[in-house]
Amino acid sequence: MNPLKKHLTSILSDAGSFRRKIIASAALSTLVFIVHLVTRIVSTIVLTRILTPDVFGVFAVVMIFIYIFEQFSDIGVRPLILTKEGDLDEGFLRSCWTAQILRGLVICILCCCVAVGIKLGQGAGWFPAESSYNVAVLPFAIACISLSSIITGFASTSRFIYERDMNFRLISIENLIRAVLSLTITISLALWLRSIWALVFAFLIGAVIQVIFSFALYSGPKMRLNWDRTNLKLIVDRGKWIAGQSGLTAILLVADRFVLGFAMSASTFGFYYVARQIVDLVEMFLGSVHAQMGLQVFTELQKNDDVGVWRRRYYRYRLLFDGLSMLGAGGLMTFAPTLVGIVYDDRYADIAPIIQILAVGMVLVGPGLLREAFVAERRLKEMTKLSLVRAVTIWGGLLTAVFGFKSITAGLVVIALHRTPEITILLIKGRREGWVSLLHEIRLLPLVPVGAVIGWGLAAAMAGFM
After folding, report:
1. In terms of pTM, does the model score above 0.85?
2. Which residues of 416-429 are buried (b: 16+ CB within 10 A; e: fewer)?
3. Are 238 and 379 in contact (CB under 8 A)?
4. Is 131 strand, coil or helix?
C-alpha cells in the first residue's frame, strides 16, 4: 500500500466515507503540490534570469499592504461556511458573497490611501535612500494591485460548498489549471515588460481567472446581493474573532517585510524574498494538505469523547507533517548552497546562507497544527490571544535585532524561531486538555540530522557531476 494512503487510513478508525475522503484529499493535495512545485521552480529559474533582484524586493513590499488589509478585514467567509451548523441556505451564501464584495472595495480604498502616503513620504525624504520603500514605482504598483481585491470579491461562494462536502476533485483540477496559466502569463509578461509591472499585471489577471472559474466550475445558487440581517449578524458575530486573529497573523507575517524592507536595499531584500520562497516550498505543501482537510479532521476528532483515542489519532495525523518538515529542515541546511548554484545565476549566490537560517524554523511546523483543534471547538478568542503573543515576539525580536544590535543575521534567526513562545503556550494548553504527549512531540527530532546527512550526500554527489 502507498505509505501516504496507509498513513491516512490509520488516522481515523471510523468507517467508510469520511476516511476515504481524507485519503482522496491527501492524494489530490499531493498532486496539486507537485504541479505547484514544478511551476514555482520553473517560474523561479526563468524569472530570476529575466528580472533583476530589486524587482522581487519591491514586489515583496507591494504585497505587504494588500495582505495586511485583507487579513484585518477577513470575516472568515470560508470557515463560516465550512463550520456552519445544519444545512446551508441560498440566502446565507449570498450574504457571504455580499460581504466579500464590500470587503474588496474597502481594501482597495485603504491601499490607495497607503500609496498616496508613501508617495508623499518619498517626496519628504522619510525613507533611507537605499530603502525598498524609496523606489519611485512602489506607490503606483500598490494602487494598481489593490484592484485585485475588488475583483476577487466577486468570486462565487459556491466553491466552499464543495470544500464543506470534501469534494476536492474539481477544486484540485481548478488549482492545477490556474497554476499552469499563472506560470505562462507571468513568464510571458516578464519577457515583454521586464519590470515589476509584469508581476503586478500577472497578479491582476490571476484574480480575474479565479472569479471566472468560481462561476464556471462550481454549481450553486445564483449570486446576488443579499442584505439579510440575520445572516449578516451571524457573519459579523463569528467573523469578528476570525478578523482579529487574521489581523494579528498579518501583523506578524509581514513583520519581516516591514523591518527588513526598510533596513535593506531593494536588491538585498530581493535575495531574502527569493530565499523565503525556497524555504516555503515544503511548508507550502504541508500547509495545502492541512488547509484543505485540517479543520474537517479536527471537527471529526472532537466528536470522540475518549481523550486517549483523540490523542492517538491526532499524532497519527501529525506523522506526515512532522516527518517531512524535520527532513526538510535538515536537508536545506546542508543542501542550500548546491541548490542555489543549480537554480540561480551568480547574482543570487547570497541566497544560500539565508535559506540555511530560515530552514531551522521548519521544525515548528508540526506542533503548530494544534491550533486547528481549538478552532474546531470555536475557541477563537484563545487563538486570537496566541496570535498576539506571536506578533509581539516577532516584532519585538526583529526590531531589537535589526535596529538594536544592528544585525540582519540575528533578525533572520528571530524570523526562523519566532513561533517558539506561541507553540510553548499551545502545547501547555493542549497538555491540559489531554491532547499532547511530550514524548510524541520530540520523537521525530532525530530526522533533522538524518535530513542533513541526506542533503550533504546529495550535495557531494552533485559536486562530482559539476
Report:
1. no
2. bbbbebbbeebbeb
3. no
4. strand
Sequential pLDDT tens for the chain (466 residues): 444 444 444 444 444 455 566 666 666 666 776 777 788 778 878 888 898 888 988 998 898 888 888 877 776 677 777 666 666 778 888 888 888 898 899 999 999 999 999 999 998 888 887 888 888 999 999 999 999 999 998 988 888 777 776 666 778 788 888 888 999 999 999 999 999 999 999 999 999 999 999 898 888 788 888 777 777 777 776 666 666 666 666 777 788 888 888 888 888 888 898 888 888 877 777 776 676 666 567 766 667 677 887 888 888 888 888 998 999 999 999 999 998 888 887 778 888 999 999 999 999 998 988 887 777 676 767 777 887 888 889 999 999 999 898 898 999 999 999 999 999 999 999 898 888 888 889 889 999 999 999 999 998 888 766 6
DSSP 8-state code for residue 405: S
Give the helix ranges, DSSP H, for 402-444. Answer: 408-417, 420-433, 438-442
- Cα dist from 375 to 215, 273, 380, whole Å: 29, 30, 6
The dihedral over CA atoms of 148, 154, 155, 157, expressed in degrees to the nearest 10, equals 140
Coil vs helix vs strand at 265: strand
Are the C-beta atoms of residues 338 and 459 closer than 8 Å to each other? yes
What nine digits make up the cell of 356? 540555511
Angle between helices 169-193 and 196-216 (to 10 degrees): 150
Spatial distance between the Cα atoms of 104 and 157, rounded to a whole number of angstroms: 14
**CA 308-309-312 angle, 5° bins:** 85
Give dist(CA 429, CA 322) in Å, integer.
20
- Are 358 and 415 spatial neighbours (Cβ–Cβ below 8 Å)? yes
Crossing angle for the helix pair 307-343 and 351-358, to the nearest 10 degrees: 170
Q: How far apart are CA 422 and CA 386, in angstroms?
A: 6
> CA–CA distance from 66 to each of 99, 145, 159, 202, 309 (Å)?
17, 8, 23, 15, 42
How deeply is 26 buried, as exposed, middle or buried, from its count of CB atoms within 10 A (0-12, 13-18, 19+)?
buried
Residue 311 CA to residue 433 CA, distance in Å, equals 10
Residue 178 has which C-alpha cell? 490556474
